[in-house]
Amino acid sequence: MPLWLAATLAAALFQTWRTALQQRLRGQLSVNAAGVVRYLYGVPVGLAIFLLYLALFEAAPRPMGAEFLLWCAGAGILQILGTNLLIMAFGPRGFAVGTAYAKTEAAQGAFIALLLLGEELSALAWAGIGVCVAGTLYLSLAGRTQGLREILRATVQPAALFGLGSGFCFAFTAVCIKGANHALGGTELVLNALQSLVVTNVMQTLMQGGYLLWREPDQLRAVVATWRTSAQAGALSACGSACWFTGFALAPVAMVRAVGQVEILFTLAFSRWYLRESPTRTDILGALTVVAGVVLVLLGR
Questions:
Q1: Rounded to 5 degrees, what angle do the CA atoms 296, 244, 83 make?
Q2: Domain limits at 37?
Q3: Which whole-number Å values give the CA distances from 278 to 3, 99, 187, 246, in the listed order?
Q4: I need a labelling partner for 250 at 20 to 30 A (CA). Which of 82, 125, 147, 152 fits?
Q5: Residues near 301 by Cβ (< 8 Å), separated by ≥ 6?
Q6: 3-state DSSP assignment of residue 59
Q7: What is the pLDDT of residues 150-170, one digit of tens each?
Protein backbone atom coordinates (compact mmCIF):
# COMPACT_ATOMS: atom_id res chain seq x y z
CA MET A 1 0.00 0.00 0.00
CA PRO A 2 1.44 3.43 -0.93
CA LEU A 3 2.45 5.53 2.07
CA TRP A 4 0.16 8.41 1.05
CA LEU A 5 -2.84 6.06 1.00
CA ALA A 6 -2.03 4.53 4.40
CA ALA A 7 -1.50 8.02 5.84
CA THR A 8 -4.83 9.26 4.46
CA LEU A 9 -6.78 6.29 5.82
CA ALA A 10 -5.12 6.74 9.23
CA ALA A 11 -5.90 10.48 9.12
CA ALA A 12 -9.59 9.79 8.50
CA LEU A 13 -9.66 7.30 11.38
CA PHE A 14 -7.93 9.68 13.81
CA GLN A 15 -10.28 12.50 12.78
CA THR A 16 -13.37 10.37 13.39
CA TRP A 17 -12.02 9.25 16.76
CA ARG A 18 -11.20 12.83 17.76
CA THR A 19 -14.67 14.03 16.75
CA ALA A 20 -16.29 11.32 18.86
CA LEU A 21 -14.11 12.23 21.82
CA GLN A 22 -14.85 15.94 21.49
CA GLN A 23 -18.54 15.24 22.00
CA ARG A 24 -17.67 15.06 25.72
CA LEU A 25 -16.56 18.70 25.58
CA ARG A 26 -19.84 19.99 24.17
CA GLY A 27 -21.40 22.46 26.57
CA GLN A 28 -18.13 22.87 28.49
CA LEU A 29 -16.16 24.94 25.98
CA SER A 30 -17.00 27.70 23.51
CA VAL A 31 -16.35 27.32 19.77
CA ASN A 32 -13.00 29.11 20.01
CA ALA A 33 -11.95 27.29 23.17
CA ALA A 34 -12.65 23.95 21.50
CA GLY A 35 -10.43 25.07 18.62
CA VAL A 36 -7.61 26.08 20.96
CA VAL A 37 -7.77 22.64 22.59
CA ARG A 38 -6.94 20.98 19.26
CA TYR A 39 -3.81 23.08 18.77
CA LEU A 40 -2.59 23.78 22.31
CA TYR A 41 -2.65 20.15 23.41
CA GLY A 42 -1.68 18.97 19.95
CA VAL A 43 1.60 20.93 19.71
CA PRO A 44 3.57 18.73 22.18
CA VAL A 45 2.43 15.54 20.42
CA GLY A 46 3.20 16.93 16.96
CA LEU A 47 6.62 18.09 18.18
CA ALA A 48 7.30 14.65 19.68
CA ILE A 49 6.45 12.97 16.35
CA PHE A 50 8.73 15.41 14.52
CA LEU A 51 11.65 14.86 16.92
CA LEU A 52 11.18 11.09 16.75
CA TYR A 53 11.40 11.25 12.96
CA LEU A 54 14.58 13.33 13.16
CA ALA A 55 16.15 10.80 15.57
CA LEU A 56 15.13 7.69 13.64
CA PHE A 57 16.28 8.95 10.24
CA GLU A 58 19.20 11.08 11.48
CA ALA A 59 17.71 14.10 9.75
CA ALA A 60 17.87 17.81 10.51
CA PRO A 61 15.11 20.44 10.33
CA ARG A 62 14.88 22.31 7.07
CA PRO A 63 15.67 26.07 7.03
CA MET A 64 12.47 28.12 7.11
CA GLY A 65 12.08 31.14 4.85
CA ALA A 66 9.38 33.80 4.61
CA GLU A 67 7.49 31.92 1.90
CA PHE A 68 7.22 28.81 4.09
CA LEU A 69 5.99 30.81 7.08
CA LEU A 70 3.37 32.58 4.96
CA TRP A 71 2.03 29.27 3.64
CA CYS A 72 1.82 27.92 7.22
CA ALA A 73 0.07 31.07 8.45
CA GLY A 74 -2.42 30.82 5.59
CA ALA A 75 -3.12 27.16 6.36
CA GLY A 76 -3.61 27.95 10.04
CA ILE A 77 -6.02 30.83 9.50
CA LEU A 78 -8.05 28.97 6.86
CA GLN A 79 -8.44 25.88 9.04
CA ILE A 80 -9.68 28.02 11.94
CA LEU A 81 -12.14 29.83 9.66
CA GLY A 82 -13.32 26.55 8.12
CA THR A 83 -14.00 25.04 11.54
CA ASN A 84 -15.92 28.12 12.70
CA LEU A 85 -17.98 28.26 9.49
CA LEU A 86 -18.86 24.59 9.86
CA ILE A 87 -20.08 25.16 13.41
CA MET A 88 -22.07 28.20 12.24
CA ALA A 89 -23.78 25.92 9.71
CA PHE A 90 -25.05 23.74 12.54
CA GLY A 91 -28.17 25.82 13.21
CA PRO A 92 -31.39 24.31 14.54
CA ARG A 93 -32.38 23.10 11.05
CA GLY A 94 -29.11 23.39 9.19
CA PHE A 95 -26.96 20.53 10.49
CA ALA A 96 -27.63 18.11 7.62
CA VAL A 97 -27.40 20.74 4.88
CA GLY A 98 -24.29 22.38 6.33
CA THR A 99 -22.47 19.07 6.77
CA ALA A 100 -23.39 17.92 3.28
CA TYR A 101 -22.13 21.05 1.54
CA ALA A 102 -18.94 21.14 3.63
CA LYS A 103 -18.14 17.72 2.17
CA THR A 104 -17.75 19.31 -1.27
CA GLU A 105 -14.22 20.18 -0.13
CA ALA A 106 -12.83 17.27 -2.21
CA ALA A 107 -14.19 18.74 -5.45
CA GLN A 108 -13.31 22.32 -4.46
CA GLY A 109 -9.81 21.19 -3.53
CA ALA A 110 -9.35 19.55 -6.93
CA PHE A 111 -10.16 22.81 -8.76
CA ILE A 112 -8.05 24.97 -6.44
CA ALA A 113 -5.05 22.61 -6.71
CA LEU A 114 -5.41 22.58 -10.49
CA LEU A 115 -5.45 26.39 -10.69
CA LEU A 116 -2.76 27.17 -8.11
CA LEU A 117 -0.50 24.10 -8.11
CA GLY A 118 -1.07 22.73 -11.59
CA GLU A 119 -2.11 19.31 -10.23
CA GLU A 120 -3.79 17.49 -13.10
CA LEU A 121 -5.98 14.41 -12.64
CA SER A 122 -7.23 11.76 -15.04
CA ALA A 123 -10.85 11.72 -16.16
CA LEU A 124 -11.39 8.58 -14.06
CA ALA A 125 -10.07 10.33 -10.93
CA TRP A 126 -12.38 13.32 -11.56
CA ALA A 127 -15.29 10.89 -11.92
CA GLY A 128 -14.32 9.24 -8.65
CA ILE A 129 -14.26 12.60 -6.84
CA GLY A 130 -17.74 13.33 -8.19
CA VAL A 131 -19.03 9.95 -7.00
CA CYS A 132 -17.49 10.49 -3.53
CA VAL A 133 -19.16 13.90 -3.21
CA ALA A 134 -22.48 12.44 -4.40
CA GLY A 135 -22.22 9.66 -1.83
CA THR A 136 -21.54 12.02 1.06
CA LEU A 137 -24.34 14.35 -0.05
CA TYR A 138 -26.72 11.40 -0.20
CA LEU A 139 -25.71 10.16 3.25
CA SER A 140 -26.13 13.64 4.74
CA LEU A 141 -29.40 14.62 3.05
CA ALA A 142 -31.32 11.39 2.41
CA GLY A 143 -34.52 11.36 4.39
CA ARG A 144 -34.09 15.02 5.36
CA THR A 145 -35.05 16.69 2.09
CA GLN A 146 -37.88 16.17 -0.38
CA GLY A 147 -36.10 15.56 -3.67
CA LEU A 148 -33.75 17.46 -5.97
CA ARG A 149 -35.83 20.66 -6.09
CA GLU A 150 -35.64 21.11 -2.33
CA ILE A 151 -31.91 20.33 -2.36
CA LEU A 152 -31.39 23.06 -4.96
CA ARG A 153 -33.43 25.50 -2.89
CA ALA A 154 -31.32 24.58 0.12
CA THR A 155 -28.15 25.80 -1.62
CA VAL A 156 -29.09 29.42 -0.90
CA GLN A 157 -29.88 28.81 2.76
CA PRO A 158 -27.36 30.16 5.30
CA ALA A 159 -26.49 26.62 6.41
CA ALA A 160 -25.53 25.63 2.86
CA LEU A 161 -23.57 28.84 2.28
CA PHE A 162 -21.68 28.38 5.54
CA GLY A 163 -21.07 24.74 4.61
CA LEU A 164 -19.74 25.65 1.15
CA GLY A 165 -17.54 28.30 2.75
CA SER A 166 -16.25 25.76 5.23
CA GLY A 167 -15.47 23.30 2.45
CA PHE A 168 -13.66 26.03 0.52
CA CYS A 169 -11.53 26.94 3.55
CA PHE A 170 -10.62 23.32 4.24
CA ALA A 171 -9.78 22.76 0.56
CA PHE A 172 -7.61 25.86 0.49
CA THR A 173 -5.96 24.75 3.74
CA ALA A 174 -4.75 21.61 1.99
CA VAL A 175 -3.32 23.70 -0.86
CA CYS A 176 -1.47 25.93 1.62
CA ILE A 177 -0.04 22.87 3.35
CA LYS A 178 1.18 21.59 -0.01
CA GLY A 179 2.71 25.01 -0.71
CA ALA A 180 4.52 24.96 2.66
CA ASN A 181 5.95 21.51 1.91
CA HIS A 182 7.25 22.70 -1.47
CA ALA A 183 8.70 25.89 0.05
CA LEU A 184 10.94 23.85 2.36
CA GLY A 185 12.55 22.13 -0.63
CA GLY A 186 14.63 18.99 -0.44
CA THR A 187 13.54 15.42 -1.07
CA GLU A 188 12.46 14.34 2.44
CA LEU A 189 8.75 15.00 1.94
CA VAL A 190 7.62 13.39 5.20
CA LEU A 191 10.11 15.54 7.13
CA ASN A 192 8.72 18.62 5.38
CA ALA A 193 5.17 17.58 6.27
CA LEU A 194 5.95 17.09 9.97
CA GLN A 195 7.87 20.36 10.19
CA SER A 196 4.98 22.18 8.52
CA LEU A 197 2.59 20.60 11.03
CA VAL A 198 4.53 21.80 14.08
CA VAL A 199 4.94 25.36 12.78
CA THR A 200 1.29 25.61 11.68
CA ASN A 201 -0.04 24.30 15.01
CA VAL A 202 2.13 26.74 16.98
CA MET A 203 0.80 29.60 14.85
CA GLN A 204 -2.79 28.41 15.33
CA THR A 205 -2.30 28.23 19.10
CA LEU A 206 -1.01 31.80 19.15
CA MET A 207 -3.72 33.10 16.79
CA GLN A 208 -6.79 31.50 18.32
CA GLY A 209 -5.32 31.48 21.83
CA GLY A 210 -4.67 35.21 21.56
CA TYR A 211 -8.23 35.80 20.41
CA LEU A 212 -9.50 33.72 23.33
CA LEU A 213 -7.41 35.71 25.80
CA TRP A 214 -8.78 38.94 24.33
CA ARG A 215 -12.45 38.04 23.90
CA GLU A 216 -13.14 35.04 26.17
CA PRO A 217 -10.59 35.00 29.02
CA ASP A 218 -12.88 32.86 31.20
CA GLN A 219 -12.67 30.08 28.63
CA LEU A 220 -8.92 29.74 29.22
CA ARG A 221 -9.68 28.34 32.67
CA ALA A 222 -12.16 25.94 31.11
CA VAL A 223 -9.48 24.75 28.66
CA VAL A 224 -7.22 23.95 31.60
CA ALA A 225 -10.01 22.44 33.72
CA THR A 226 -10.94 19.94 31.00
CA TRP A 227 -7.34 18.93 30.41
CA ARG A 228 -7.92 15.18 30.64
CA THR A 229 -10.37 14.99 27.74
CA SER A 230 -8.85 17.99 25.97
CA ALA A 231 -5.37 16.46 25.99
CA GLN A 232 -6.69 13.28 24.41
CA ALA A 233 -8.52 15.27 21.73
CA GLY A 234 -5.39 17.31 21.09
CA ALA A 235 -3.23 14.20 20.78
CA LEU A 236 -5.64 12.61 18.29
CA SER A 237 -5.80 15.88 16.37
CA ALA A 238 -1.99 16.01 16.13
CA CYS A 239 -1.75 12.40 14.97
CA GLY A 240 -4.49 12.97 12.40
CA SER A 241 -2.89 16.19 11.16
CA ALA A 242 0.51 14.47 10.87
CA CYS A 243 -1.12 11.89 8.61
CA TRP A 244 -3.01 14.51 6.56
CA PHE A 245 0.13 16.59 6.08
CA THR A 246 2.06 13.48 5.01
CA GLY A 247 -0.66 12.54 2.53
CA PHE A 248 -0.67 16.04 1.02
CA ALA A 249 3.13 15.93 0.70
CA LEU A 250 3.13 12.63 -1.20
CA ALA A 251 0.04 12.80 -3.43
CA PRO A 252 -2.22 15.33 -5.19
CA VAL A 253 -4.46 17.28 -2.83
CA ALA A 254 -7.65 16.20 -4.60
CA MET A 255 -6.84 12.50 -4.32
CA VAL A 256 -6.03 12.74 -0.63
CA ARG A 257 -9.25 14.65 0.06
CA ALA A 258 -11.30 12.20 -2.01
CA VAL A 259 -9.91 9.12 -0.27
CA GLY A 260 -10.34 10.94 3.04
CA GLN A 261 -14.10 10.77 2.50
CA VAL A 262 -13.87 7.25 3.99
CA GLU A 263 -14.13 9.18 7.25
CA ILE A 264 -17.88 8.82 6.86
CA LEU A 265 -17.46 5.03 6.74
CA PHE A 266 -15.53 5.10 9.99
CA THR A 267 -18.34 7.21 11.45
CA LEU A 268 -20.90 4.58 10.44
CA ALA A 269 -18.69 1.83 11.88
CA PHE A 270 -18.35 3.75 15.15
CA SER A 271 -22.12 4.16 15.24
CA ARG A 272 -22.66 0.44 14.63
CA TRP A 273 -20.07 -1.16 16.89
CA TYR A 274 -19.69 1.42 19.67
CA LEU A 275 -23.12 3.01 19.90
CA ARG A 276 -24.92 -0.20 18.83
CA GLU A 277 -26.97 1.61 16.19
CA SER A 278 -28.20 -0.42 13.23
CA PRO A 279 -27.31 1.03 9.81
CA THR A 280 -30.25 1.88 7.54
CA ARG A 281 -30.58 0.98 3.87
CA THR A 282 -29.71 4.60 3.10
CA ASP A 283 -26.49 4.33 5.14
CA ILE A 284 -25.43 1.19 3.31
CA LEU A 285 -26.19 2.61 -0.15
CA GLY A 286 -24.40 5.87 0.61
CA ALA A 287 -21.39 4.04 2.05
CA LEU A 288 -21.12 1.82 -1.03
CA THR A 289 -21.27 4.93 -3.23
CA VAL A 290 -18.39 6.53 -1.33
CA VAL A 291 -16.37 3.31 -1.59
CA ALA A 292 -17.04 3.17 -5.35
CA GLY A 293 -15.82 6.76 -5.70
CA VAL A 294 -12.63 6.02 -3.76
CA VAL A 295 -11.97 2.98 -5.96
CA LEU A 296 -12.37 5.11 -9.10
CA VAL A 297 -9.96 7.71 -7.68
CA LEU A 298 -7.35 5.03 -6.97
CA LEU A 299 -7.78 3.44 -10.40
CA GLY A 300 -7.36 6.87 -11.99
CA ARG A 301 -4.12 7.48 -10.11
A1: 105
A2: 3-299
A3: 33, 21, 47, 34
A4: 82
A5: 122, 125, 255
A6: coil
A7: 555 555 566 677 878 888 998
